[in-house]
Amino acid sequence: MEQNVFFLPHEGLKLIELAEFLGAELANSDHADVIVRSVAPINRARAGDVCYILSRRSRDELATCEASAVICDKALVDLVPPHIPVILSSNPHAAFAMAGGLFYPAALRPVAISPGESDIAPSAVIDPSARLEKGVIVEPLAVIGAHAEIGEGTRIGANSVIGPNVKIGRDCSIAAGASVLCALIGNGVIIHNGVRIGQDGFGYAPGPRGMIKIVQIGRVIIQDNVEIGANTTIDRGAMDDTVIGEGTKIDNQVQIGHNVQMGRHCAIVAQVGIAGSTKIGNGVQIGGQAGIKGHVTIGDGVQIAAKSGIMTDLAAGGQYGGVPARPLKDYLREAAQQVSKSKLRGRNPGGKEND
Protein backbone atom coordinates (compact mmCIF):
# COMPACT_ATOMS: atom_id res chain seq x y z
CA MET A 1 0.00 0.00 0.00
CA GLU A 2 1.23 3.50 -0.81
CA GLN A 3 2.58 5.41 2.17
CA ASN A 4 -0.11 7.50 3.86
CA VAL A 5 1.18 11.07 3.83
CA PHE A 6 -1.71 12.28 5.98
CA PHE A 7 -0.88 10.16 9.04
CA LEU A 8 2.73 9.02 9.24
CA PRO A 9 3.76 5.94 11.25
CA HIS A 10 4.96 6.25 14.83
CA GLU A 11 8.71 6.26 15.44
CA GLY A 12 8.29 2.90 17.13
CA LEU A 13 7.58 1.22 20.46
CA LYS A 14 8.72 -2.05 21.95
CA LEU A 15 5.95 -4.60 22.39
CA ILE A 16 6.51 -4.69 26.13
CA GLU A 17 5.93 -0.91 26.23
CA LEU A 18 2.76 -1.24 24.19
CA ALA A 19 1.44 -4.06 26.39
CA GLU A 20 2.06 -2.01 29.53
CA PHE A 21 0.26 0.99 28.02
CA LEU A 22 -2.73 -1.20 27.16
CA GLY A 23 -2.83 -2.84 30.58
CA ALA A 24 -2.41 -6.13 28.72
CA GLU A 25 0.02 -9.05 28.87
CA LEU A 26 2.71 -10.05 26.42
CA ALA A 27 2.24 -13.80 25.92
CA ASN A 28 5.95 -14.51 25.35
CA SER A 29 8.60 -12.35 27.00
CA ASP A 30 11.03 -13.28 24.21
CA HIS A 31 9.09 -10.83 22.02
CA ALA A 32 9.51 -7.89 24.41
CA ASP A 33 11.87 -5.95 22.13
CA VAL A 34 9.91 -6.35 18.88
CA ILE A 35 9.24 -2.87 17.46
CA VAL A 36 5.77 -1.81 16.29
CA ARG A 37 4.85 1.46 14.58
CA SER A 38 1.29 1.27 13.26
CA VAL A 39 -2.09 -0.47 13.30
CA ALA A 40 -3.66 -2.37 10.42
CA PRO A 41 -6.44 -4.88 9.63
CA ILE A 42 -5.40 -8.54 9.60
CA ASN A 43 -5.67 -8.95 5.84
CA ARG A 44 -2.95 -6.40 5.07
CA ALA A 45 -0.89 -6.19 8.25
CA ARG A 46 2.85 -6.15 7.62
CA ALA A 47 6.00 -6.02 9.70
CA GLY A 48 5.71 -3.17 12.22
CA ASP A 49 1.90 -3.38 12.33
CA VAL A 50 -0.39 -4.43 15.18
CA CYS A 51 -3.77 -6.04 14.42
CA TYR A 52 -6.47 -7.75 16.49
CA ILE A 53 -8.97 -10.61 16.31
CA LEU A 54 -12.32 -11.15 18.01
CA SER A 55 -13.42 -14.57 16.78
CA ARG A 56 -12.34 -17.79 15.09
CA ARG A 57 -13.63 -16.46 11.79
CA SER A 58 -10.22 -14.79 11.46
CA ARG A 59 -8.44 -18.13 11.12
CA ASP A 60 -7.88 -17.96 7.34
CA GLU A 61 -6.61 -14.37 7.39
CA LEU A 62 -4.17 -15.20 10.18
CA ALA A 63 -2.61 -17.91 8.03
CA THR A 64 -1.14 -15.25 5.72
CA CYS A 65 -0.80 -12.44 8.27
CA GLU A 66 2.60 -10.72 8.49
CA ALA A 67 1.87 -8.49 11.50
CA SER A 68 4.44 -7.91 14.22
CA ALA A 69 1.78 -8.53 16.87
CA VAL A 70 -1.81 -9.67 17.28
CA ILE A 71 -4.05 -8.52 20.14
CA CYS A 72 -6.50 -11.21 21.22
CA ASP A 73 -8.25 -12.93 24.11
CA LYS A 74 -6.63 -15.99 25.71
CA ALA A 75 -9.29 -18.22 24.17
CA LEU A 76 -8.05 -17.39 20.66
CA VAL A 77 -4.29 -17.72 21.17
CA ASP A 78 -4.21 -21.11 19.46
CA LEU A 79 -5.30 -19.47 16.18
CA VAL A 80 -2.24 -17.20 15.97
CA PRO A 81 0.73 -18.60 14.03
CA PRO A 82 3.64 -19.27 16.41
CA HIS A 83 5.95 -16.75 14.72
CA ILE A 84 3.58 -13.82 15.45
CA PRO A 85 3.83 -12.24 18.93
CA VAL A 86 0.60 -12.10 20.93
CA ILE A 87 -0.67 -9.41 23.29
CA LEU A 88 -3.32 -10.86 25.59
CA SER A 89 -6.29 -8.65 26.44
CA SER A 90 -9.75 -9.36 27.85
CA ASN A 91 -11.08 -6.62 25.53
CA PRO A 92 -9.08 -6.74 22.27
CA HIS A 93 -11.31 -4.25 20.48
CA ALA A 94 -10.75 -1.57 23.10
CA ALA A 95 -7.05 -2.39 23.33
CA PHE A 96 -6.66 -2.00 19.57
CA ALA A 97 -8.45 1.35 19.73
CA MET A 98 -6.06 2.51 22.46
CA ALA A 99 -3.07 1.36 20.40
CA GLY A 100 -4.29 3.33 17.40
CA GLY A 101 -4.64 6.46 19.51
CA LEU A 102 -1.13 5.98 20.89
CA PHE A 103 0.43 5.62 17.43
CA TYR A 104 -1.63 8.36 15.78
CA PRO A 105 -2.66 10.95 18.38
CA ALA A 106 -3.17 13.61 15.70
CA ALA A 107 -5.91 11.49 14.10
CA LEU A 108 -8.05 11.56 17.24
CA ARG A 109 -9.19 15.11 16.53
CA PRO A 110 -10.04 17.14 13.43
CA VAL A 111 -6.98 17.94 11.38
CA ALA A 112 -5.72 21.48 11.84
CA ILE A 113 -6.10 23.52 8.64
CA SER A 114 -3.49 25.95 9.88
CA PRO A 115 -0.98 23.81 11.78
CA GLY A 116 1.03 26.71 13.19
CA GLU A 117 0.91 27.42 16.90
CA SER A 118 0.82 31.21 16.53
CA ASP A 119 -2.41 31.29 18.55
CA ILE A 120 -4.52 33.87 16.71
CA ALA A 121 -4.53 34.06 12.91
CA PRO A 122 -4.39 37.64 11.59
CA SER A 123 -7.54 37.08 9.53
CA ALA A 124 -9.61 35.84 12.49
CA VAL A 125 -12.34 38.22 13.71
CA ILE A 126 -12.65 38.32 17.50
CA ASP A 127 -14.94 40.70 19.33
CA PRO A 128 -13.00 42.79 21.89
CA SER A 129 -15.31 41.63 24.68
CA ALA A 130 -14.61 37.92 24.05
CA ARG A 131 -12.42 36.18 26.65
CA LEU A 132 -9.85 33.64 25.50
CA GLU A 133 -7.63 31.83 27.99
CA LYS A 134 -3.97 31.25 27.19
CA GLY A 135 -3.20 28.62 24.62
CA VAL A 136 -6.39 29.09 22.59
CA ILE A 137 -5.70 28.75 18.86
CA VAL A 138 -7.94 30.56 16.38
CA GLU A 139 -7.41 29.63 12.74
CA PRO A 140 -7.86 31.90 9.69
CA LEU A 141 -11.24 33.52 9.06
CA ALA A 142 -12.85 32.20 12.23
CA VAL A 143 -15.34 34.58 13.88
CA ILE A 144 -15.85 34.82 17.66
CA GLY A 145 -18.75 36.92 18.92
CA ALA A 146 -19.25 39.31 21.80
CA HIS A 147 -18.72 38.02 25.35
CA ALA A 148 -17.86 34.52 24.17
CA GLU A 149 -15.54 32.60 26.51
CA ILE A 150 -13.09 29.91 25.35
CA GLY A 151 -10.92 27.77 27.60
CA GLU A 152 -7.23 26.96 27.53
CA GLY A 153 -6.00 24.50 24.90
CA THR A 154 -9.05 24.81 22.64
CA ARG A 155 -8.64 25.16 18.88
CA ILE A 156 -11.19 27.10 16.81
CA GLY A 157 -11.03 25.92 13.19
CA ALA A 158 -10.86 27.96 10.02
CA ASN A 159 -14.11 29.62 8.91
CA SER A 160 -15.94 28.53 12.04
CA VAL A 161 -18.39 30.80 13.88
CA ILE A 162 -18.66 31.07 17.68
CA GLY A 163 -21.71 33.11 18.57
CA PRO A 164 -22.18 35.79 21.21
CA ASN A 165 -22.14 34.62 24.85
CA VAL A 166 -21.17 31.06 23.89
CA LYS A 167 -18.95 29.34 26.44
CA ILE A 168 -16.51 26.61 25.36
CA GLY A 169 -14.41 24.69 27.86
CA ARG A 170 -10.79 23.60 27.80
CA ASP A 171 -9.04 21.24 25.37
CA CYS A 172 -11.86 21.29 22.83
CA SER A 173 -11.58 21.04 19.04
CA ILE A 174 -14.00 23.02 16.87
CA ALA A 175 -13.28 21.99 13.28
CA ALA A 176 -13.38 24.09 10.12
CA GLY A 177 -16.73 25.47 9.06
CA ALA A 178 -18.61 24.65 12.26
CA SER A 179 -21.03 27.07 13.90
CA VAL A 180 -21.79 27.15 17.63
CA LEU A 181 -24.59 29.44 18.81
CA CYS A 182 -26.60 29.72 22.04
CA ALA A 183 -24.53 26.93 23.60
CA LEU A 184 -22.50 26.01 26.65
CA ILE A 185 -19.79 23.47 25.81
CA GLY A 186 -17.85 21.43 28.37
CA ASN A 187 -14.21 20.29 28.39
CA GLY A 188 -12.64 17.89 25.90
CA VAL A 189 -15.45 18.23 23.37
CA ILE A 190 -14.75 17.46 19.69
CA ILE A 191 -16.95 19.13 17.07
CA HIS A 192 -16.19 18.08 13.49
CA ASN A 193 -16.40 19.97 10.21
CA GLY A 194 -19.68 21.60 9.30
CA VAL A 195 -21.50 20.87 12.57
CA ARG A 196 -24.36 23.24 13.36
CA ILE A 197 -25.16 23.76 17.03
CA GLY A 198 -27.73 26.10 18.52
CA GLN A 199 -29.79 27.18 15.52
CA ASP A 200 -33.50 27.50 16.21
CA GLY A 201 -35.58 24.37 16.40
CA PHE A 202 -38.54 23.47 14.20
CA GLY A 203 -41.58 24.87 15.94
CA TYR A 204 -44.78 26.26 14.38
CA ALA A 205 -48.41 26.71 15.38
CA PRO A 206 -51.18 26.51 12.74
CA GLY A 207 -52.88 29.86 12.34
CA PRO A 208 -55.68 31.34 10.21
CA ARG A 209 -53.16 32.48 7.59
CA GLY A 210 -50.68 29.63 7.78
CA MET A 211 -47.96 28.52 10.14
CA ILE A 212 -46.90 30.87 12.94
CA LYS A 213 -43.32 30.50 14.11
CA ILE A 214 -42.81 29.64 17.79
CA VAL A 215 -39.80 31.41 19.25
CA GLN A 216 -36.91 29.19 20.29
CA ILE A 217 -35.25 30.81 23.30
CA GLY A 218 -33.52 27.83 24.96
CA ARG A 219 -29.89 26.73 24.85
CA VAL A 220 -27.76 23.74 23.92
CA ILE A 221 -25.78 22.19 26.78
CA ILE A 222 -22.99 19.81 25.72
CA GLN A 223 -21.22 18.11 28.59
CA ASP A 224 -17.58 16.96 28.82
CA ASN A 225 -15.92 14.61 26.32
CA VAL A 226 -18.74 14.57 23.79
CA GLU A 227 -17.82 14.04 20.12
CA ILE A 228 -20.08 15.28 17.33
CA GLY A 229 -19.61 14.11 13.73
CA ALA A 230 -19.46 16.18 10.55
CA ASN A 231 -22.60 17.98 9.38
CA THR A 232 -24.64 16.97 12.42
CA THR A 233 -27.20 19.52 13.64
CA ILE A 234 -28.32 20.08 17.23
CA ASP A 235 -31.16 22.59 17.67
CA ARG A 236 -31.41 24.82 20.68
CA GLY A 237 -34.32 24.37 23.03
CA ALA A 238 -37.64 26.11 22.54
CA MET A 239 -37.91 27.29 26.15
CA ASP A 240 -35.98 24.53 27.92
CA ASP A 241 -32.48 23.29 27.00
CA THR A 242 -31.27 20.68 24.56
CA VAL A 243 -28.77 18.55 26.51
CA ILE A 244 -26.12 16.07 25.30
CA GLY A 245 -24.70 14.04 28.19
CA GLU A 246 -21.08 13.43 29.10
CA GLY A 247 -19.07 11.06 26.91
CA THR A 248 -21.76 10.65 24.25
CA LYS A 249 -20.54 10.03 20.68
CA ILE A 250 -22.62 11.24 17.74
CA ASP A 251 -21.86 10.23 14.15
CA ASN A 252 -22.05 12.33 10.97
CA GLN A 253 -25.33 13.78 9.63
CA VAL A 254 -27.46 13.27 12.72
CA GLN A 255 -30.40 15.60 13.44
CA ILE A 256 -31.25 16.32 17.09
CA GLY A 257 -34.34 18.43 17.66
CA HIS A 258 -35.14 21.06 20.27
CA ASN A 259 -35.42 20.11 23.95
CA VAL A 260 -33.93 16.63 23.45
CA GLN A 261 -32.42 15.36 26.71
CA MET A 262 -29.73 12.78 25.96
CA GLY A 263 -27.90 10.87 28.69
CA ARG A 264 -24.28 9.95 29.24
CA HIS A 265 -22.15 7.66 27.06
CA CYS A 266 -24.68 7.14 24.29
CA ALA A 267 -23.71 6.17 20.73
CA ILE A 268 -25.77 7.64 17.87
CA VAL A 269 -24.96 6.41 14.35
CA ALA A 270 -25.22 8.35 11.07
CA GLN A 271 -28.47 9.81 9.75
CA VAL A 272 -30.46 9.23 12.92
CA GLY A 273 -33.28 11.73 13.39
CA ILE A 274 -34.44 12.54 16.93
CA ALA A 275 -37.52 14.72 17.18
CA GLY A 276 -38.05 17.36 19.83
CA SER A 277 -38.50 16.77 23.56
CA THR A 278 -37.35 13.14 23.39
CA LYS A 279 -35.70 11.87 26.57
CA ILE A 280 -32.88 9.36 26.08
CA GLY A 281 -31.24 7.55 28.99
CA ASN A 282 -27.62 6.65 29.66
CA GLY A 283 -25.69 4.20 27.49
CA VAL A 284 -28.27 4.10 24.69
CA GLN A 285 -27.11 2.88 21.24
CA ILE A 286 -29.07 3.90 18.13
CA GLY A 287 -28.33 2.36 14.70
CA GLY A 288 -28.07 4.32 11.47
CA GLN A 289 -31.13 5.97 9.89
CA ALA A 290 -33.38 5.27 12.85
CA GLY A 291 -36.13 7.81 13.42
CA ILE A 292 -37.47 8.75 16.84
CA LYS A 293 -40.84 10.42 17.38
CA GLY A 294 -40.96 13.44 19.63
CA HIS A 295 -41.94 13.36 23.32
CA VAL A 296 -41.00 9.70 23.88
CA THR A 297 -38.74 8.31 26.58
CA ILE A 298 -36.00 5.75 25.89
CA GLY A 299 -34.65 3.97 28.95
CA ASP A 300 -31.05 3.38 29.99
CA GLY A 301 -29.03 0.87 27.98
CA VAL A 302 -31.55 0.49 25.13
CA GLN A 303 -30.22 -0.75 21.77
CA ILE A 304 -32.11 0.26 18.61
CA ALA A 305 -31.50 -1.44 15.26
CA ALA A 306 -30.75 0.54 12.10
CA LYS A 307 -33.70 1.96 10.13
CA SER A 308 -36.09 1.51 13.04
CA GLY A 309 -39.03 3.82 13.75
CA ILE A 310 -39.62 4.65 17.42
CA MET A 311 -43.22 5.62 18.11
CA THR A 312 -43.61 4.89 21.84
CA ASP A 313 -41.57 4.76 25.03
CA LEU A 314 -38.96 1.98 25.24
CA ALA A 315 -38.19 0.21 28.51
CA ALA A 316 -34.63 0.23 29.86
CA GLY A 317 -32.21 -2.48 28.79
CA GLY A 318 -34.20 -3.74 25.80
CA GLN A 319 -33.23 -4.36 22.18
CA TYR A 320 -35.68 -3.07 19.58
CA GLY A 321 -36.04 -2.97 15.80
CA GLY A 322 -38.47 -2.44 12.94
CA VAL A 323 -41.18 0.05 12.04
CA PRO A 324 -42.83 0.54 14.42
CA ALA A 325 -40.07 -0.67 16.74
CA ARG A 326 -40.76 -3.74 18.84
CA PRO A 327 -38.59 -6.20 20.76
CA LEU A 328 -35.76 -7.24 18.46
CA LYS A 329 -36.52 -10.98 18.67
CA ASP A 330 -40.09 -10.34 17.51
CA TYR A 331 -38.90 -8.11 14.68
CA LEU A 332 -36.32 -10.63 13.44
CA ARG A 333 -38.85 -13.47 13.62
CA GLU A 334 -41.39 -11.49 11.62
CA ALA A 335 -38.72 -10.52 9.06
CA ALA A 336 -37.72 -14.16 8.64
CA GLN A 337 -41.37 -15.12 8.11
CA GLN A 338 -41.77 -12.44 5.44
CA VAL A 339 -38.67 -13.70 3.62
CA SER A 340 -40.01 -17.24 3.76
CA LYS A 341 -43.40 -16.17 2.35
CA SER A 342 -41.70 -14.20 -0.40
CA LYS A 343 -39.75 -17.28 -1.48
CA LEU A 344 -42.93 -19.36 -1.55
CA ARG A 345 -44.67 -16.79 -3.76
CA GLY A 346 -41.77 -17.04 -6.18
CA ARG A 347 -42.53 -20.71 -6.89
CA ASN A 348 -45.20 -22.01 -9.23
CA PRO A 349 -47.62 -24.82 -8.26
CA GLY A 350 -45.24 -27.42 -9.68
CA GLY A 351 -42.60 -26.43 -7.16
CA LYS A 352 -40.26 -24.84 -9.73
CA GLU A 353 -39.14 -21.26 -9.43
CA ASN A 354 -40.68 -18.82 -11.88
CA ASP A 355 -38.40 -17.18 -14.44
Task: Outline the structure in words.
Catalyzes the N-acylation of UDP-3-O-acylglucosamine using 3-hydroxyacyl-ACP as the acyl donor. Is involved in the biosynthesis of lipid A, a phosphorylated glycolipid that anchors the lipopolysaccharide to the outer membrane of the cell. By secondary structure, this protein is α/β, with parallel strands linked by helices. It has two domains: about 15-110, Udp-n-acetylmuramoylalanyl-d-glutamate--2,6- Diaminopimelate Ligase, Chain: A, domain 1 (3-Layer(aba) Sandwich), CATH 3.40.1390.10; about 125-330, UDP N-Acetylglucosamine Acyltransferase, domain 1, CATH 2.160.10. It is built from four helices and 39 strands. The strands form six sheets. It has an eleven-stranded mixed β-sheet, covered by helices on one side. A ten-stranded parallel β-sheet has the order 8-11-14-17-20-25-28-31-34-37, with no helix packed on it. Strands 9-12-15-18-23-26-29-32-35 form a nine-stranded parallel β-sheet, with no helix packed on it. Strand 5 (about 50), helix 2 and strand 6 form a beta-alpha-beta unit. The protein is flat. The mean pLDDT is about 95.
Instruction: Please estimate the helix content.
Output: 10-25%
Mean pLDDT: 93
What is the name of the CATH superfamily of the largest domain? Hexapeptide repeat proteins
Supply the CATH architecture of the largest domain.
Answer: 3 Solenoid
CATH class of the largest domain: Mainly Beta
Number of helices: 4
